[in-house]
């Protein structure tokens, strides 16, 4: 019995260490290598497009909306978890109509035609940062100023760009997954640690509909616990770095969705407060909970979306 108790206590101690270890301890510094001009930006986009092989869905390939020359503004749009560039196509068209060159890259492990793919389990925080650096570098050649916009996982990447890239004129994280609505506050760290420690699990977006999921048909049917944890981990790293140093971006617009069922909005507000404590220019806007919007307020095919209401607000916040 004593041996059993010792083993049990040891297992509990290990579990406690795994669950309660601090989050955001890893640093992910930027490694900028900006395109020097428009022609170089086009060459880099072509290299990115070449990675979109036959396994990538036709609607999910990297998008570039260009006026044929460098413009005053370049807007980089980073899509959400399990989605793809198609999510931002309609909003990107409107930003293009406002005179911007618009770049919408496919994020790592996303956009595969197989909506039941397990590729998403391979996504990690470092790959997110590298993809963000690459997108901002391309944006530097497309416009005199660079605006980085991201939703959900892309929102965390936009927040990372805000913290790390001084050549970002404006960063616009939308509903960034810096904390979990179902494990808010003090529960986020243990939940993240648990998801990182345990084998990856794939969870249906809708347990009842499963493969018959309504809404966009370019979205994966399941999300990965490992990818979710890596995203939240990157968000924690951004906050930890923000406590050490002010954000590098010239301005930040933080957009949240009231009643968001995916994101812990108080965690987002905490990051905003940390940035403001350095005197950073941070504007906050929250869509009222009374609107009953989906976490994904961008994809026009999303159930619970309302582009007619949301897009004018987003456009004025992104590129007034």
What does this 3D model show about the protein?
With 320 residues, this protein is an alpha/beta fold. The chain has one domain: Alpha/Beta hydrolase fold, catalytic domain (Rossmann fold). It contains nine helices and nine strands. It has helices spanning 2-20, 38-50, 89-97, 125-142, 153-164, 188-197, 225-244, 265-277, 307-318, and strands at 63-65, 71-78, 101-104, 143-151, 170-174, 202-204, 222-224, 251-257, 282-287. Strands 1-3-2-4-5-8-9 form a seven-stranded mixed β-sheet, sandwiched between helices. The radius of gyration is 20 Å and the shape is globular. It starts with a helix and ends with a helix. Residues 6-17 have low confidence and may be disordered.
Radius of gyration: 20 Å
Question: What is the percent of helical residues?
Answer: 25-40%
Main sheet characteristics? 7 strands, mixed
| Strands ordered across the widest β-sheet | 1-3-2-4-5-8-9
Order of helices and strands: HHEEHEHEHEHEEHEHEH
User: In total, how many domains does the architecture comprise?
Assistant: 1
CATH class: Alpha Beta
The dominant shape is globular
Strand content range: 15-25%
> Mind telling me the CATH superfamily name?
Alpha/Beta hydrolase fold, catalytic domain
Total strand count, please?
9
Q: Provide mean pLDDT, rounded.
A: 92
CATH-defined architecture: 3-Layer(aba) Sandwich
- Low-confidence parts, pLDDT < 50 over ≥5 residues? 6-17
Number of H- or I-type helical stretches: 9
Q: Which structural category fits the helices and strands?
A: alpha/beta
Distance between the termini: 70 Å
By CATH, the topology is Rossmann fold
């Amino acid at each position: 019995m004593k041996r059993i108790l010792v083993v049990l206590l040891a297992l509990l101690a290990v579990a406690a260490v795994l669950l309660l270890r601090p989050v955001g301890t890893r640093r992910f510094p930027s490694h900028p290598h900006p395109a020097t001009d428009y022609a170089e930006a086009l060459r880099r986009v072509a290299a990115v497009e070449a990675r979109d092989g036959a396994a990538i869905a036709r609607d999910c390939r990297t998008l570039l909306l260009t006026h044929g020359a460098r413009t005053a503004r370049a807007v980089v749009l980073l899509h959400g978890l399990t989605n793809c560039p198609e999510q931002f196509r309609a909003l990107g068209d409107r930003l293009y109509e406002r005179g911007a060159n618009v770049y919408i890259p496919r994020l790592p492990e996303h956009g595969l035609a197989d909506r039941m793919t397990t590729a998403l389990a391979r996504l990690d925080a470092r790959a997110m940062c590298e993809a963000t650096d690459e997108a901002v570098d391309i944006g530097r050649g497309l416009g005199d100023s660079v605006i980085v916009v991201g939703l959900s996982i892309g929102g965390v990447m936009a927040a990372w760009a805000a913290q790390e890239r001084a050549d970002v004129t404006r960063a616009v994280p939308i509903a960034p997954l810096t904390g979990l609505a179902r494990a808010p506050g003090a529960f986020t760290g243990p939940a993240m640690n648990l998801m990182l420690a345990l084998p990856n699990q794939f969870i249906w977006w809708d347990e009842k509909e499963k493969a018959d999921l309504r809404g966009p048909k370019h979205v994966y049917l399941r999300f990965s616990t490992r990818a979710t944890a890596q995203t939240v981990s990157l968000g924690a790293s951004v906050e930890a770095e923000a406590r050490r140093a002010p954000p590098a971006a010239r301005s930040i617009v933080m957009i949240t969705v009231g009643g968001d069922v995916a994101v812990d909005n108080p965690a987002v507000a905490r990051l905003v407060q940390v940035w403001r404590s350095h005197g950073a220019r941070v504007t906050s806007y929250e869509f009222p909970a009374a609107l009953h919007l989906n976490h994904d307020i961008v994809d026009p095919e999303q159930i619970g979306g309302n582009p007619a209401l949301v897009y004018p607000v987003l456009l004025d916040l992104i590129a007034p």
